[in-house]
Amino acid sequence: MRPGFRLCLLFLPALLALPGLTTAQAQSLKLKTPLLKWQENGLTLELQAVPSDLVRAFFLARGFDKANADLIAGQGCIFRSSIGNSATKANAPAVSIDLKNWHVLAGDKITAPRPREAWEDFWQKKKIPDRAKTAFYWALMPTKQTWQPGDYNWGMISFALPAGTKFDLEISWQRVGKPHKHLFKNLECAK
Amino acid sequence: MKHRRSTPTDHKKAMSLVRICLVMLCLIPLSLSLPSPCRAQQLLSPVPGKPMARNFELPDLDGRAINLSAFKGYIVVINFWATWCPPCRAEIPSMQRAWTILKEKNVVFLAIHVGGNEDQVWSFLTDMDVDFPVLMDTDSRVSRQWPVVGLPTTFVIDPKGKVALRAIGGRKWDDPEILDSILALAKSP
Fold first, then answer.
1. Is the pLDDT of residue A85 over 90?
2. Which of B40, B143, B167 sits opposite A151 (nearest CB)?
3. Which domains are seen in chain A, by residue range?
4. Which of A10, A120, B102, B171 fits B107 for a cystine, CB–CB 3.0-4.6 Å?
């Protein structure tokens, strides 16, 4: 094991016990991957690719061992996301999404984001601590949800694509029973 | 077995890796966060049909079992959260301020931490100067029995034990509009 990595692991428990970062610190440290901010027909969305080193570090800190943290980082083209209802008035309509109906277009293949339920089944077959499984489940964007005005959610969205892959993403949502779609072109998994 | 003696170059490389690790660890909680797209509004949604709140029993940070049914007759704000959830962290200070305002008005706050362990939560709460009760749902059993799909999600239970209001995502809990919505439940039919 490289000496730096060993030292990093040694310091990990102490670092995780450190008090949380302040907002100012949070704002001063930004990912370098492009941030997509978008809003239309009641839906507001932000997406940003997360580099695999950060994904690995996040899950190491949540109780995964190195092999499984590597597996997530290797298999997952992970984007952080924040999605919600853009309405500003209490009586505005709700919006709903189901990630299983989103389409990932890469090359000649069309897939859907890998939902947290699929990951949960995957983890059941592996010996990993319950706390790691729990953290993983809640760290992913919920698959299906309805947001009232003022509601939003955050979480990671996992695409089954290799690092650096360019792809198009067709998202869909419902508002007042009416379906809506939008295509984002040329998104890129972080390296 | 032969060991190669560390050279100053090795030491420099090791320290540079440690620095990278430190920066990465600092980035972890926030890199997965985003500002609330709806931060301007402070809305709580009425829950259709106001179902009875499902009872639960969970340990607090001192290991005492806390039962929801013990708070009948009170307005109860139940917040599902986690220390590593950025919007949860962001709303905790305003929740503490709201608790300070409402605790003398028959309002109880219960923050249910999903997953994790007591030490992580203690450390976080001490830093944030929080003193409302925090319960531990380490295996997320209660969180998954309740209609919680993501964190944070907060429910407000009326004095009859019915789930009256809900918020998905963070809020500024000491906003006057929110405080009024909560207190109005004392008079709700």
1. yes
2. B167
3. 33-188 (2.60.40)
4. B102
Of B17, B31, B143, the CB nearest to A4: B17
Tokens of A71: 């597996």
Report how far residue B28's alpha carbon sits from residue A167's, in angstroms, rounded to the nearest whole number: 25
pLDDT in the model for residue B41? 54
**Are the beta carbons of B164 and B146 closer than 8 angstroms?**
no
8 A C-beta contact, residue A65 and residue A144: no
Q: What percent of chain B clears pLDDT 90, i.e. is strictly above it?
A: 68
The strand pairing partners of A168, in sequence order, are: A105
Residue B25 is predicted with a pLDDT of 46
Residue with tokens 């605790």: B103
Q: Is the peptide bond before B152 cis (omega within 30 degrees of 0)?
A: yes
CB atoms A54 and B139 under 8 Å: no
B45-187 carries CATH number 3.40.30.10:
yes
Q: Which candidate, B161, B158, B140, places its Cα nearest to that of B149?
A: B140
Contacts of B88 by beta carbon, 8 Å cutoff, 6+ apart? B81, B82, B151, B152, B170
Cα distance from B13 to chain A (closest Cα, Å)? 7
pLDDT at A132: 92
Residue with tokens 């670092």: A15
Q: What is the mean pLDDT of residues A63-92?
A: 91
Q: Are A135 and B120 an interchain contact pair (Cβ–Cβ within 8 Å)? A: no
Nearest residue of chain B to residue A31 (CA atoms):
B31
**What's the pLDDT tens digit per position in B48-104?**
999 999 999 999 999 999 999 999 999 999 999 999 899 999 999 999 999 999 999
Read off the pLDDT band of B135 (50, 70, 90): very high
Contact B26 A25 (CB under 8 A): yes
Say how many CB pairs under 8 Å bridge A and B: 190
| Rounded distance between C-alpha atoms, residue A159 and residue A83, angstroms | 17
Residue A22: the pLDDT is 31
Chain B nearest C-alpha distance from A173 (Å): 17
Q: Which residues of B touch A28 (CB under 8 A)?
A: none
What is the residue extent of each domain of chain B?
A: 45-187
Give ipTM to 2 decimals: 0.82
Cβ–Cβ of A29/B45 closer than 8 Å?
no
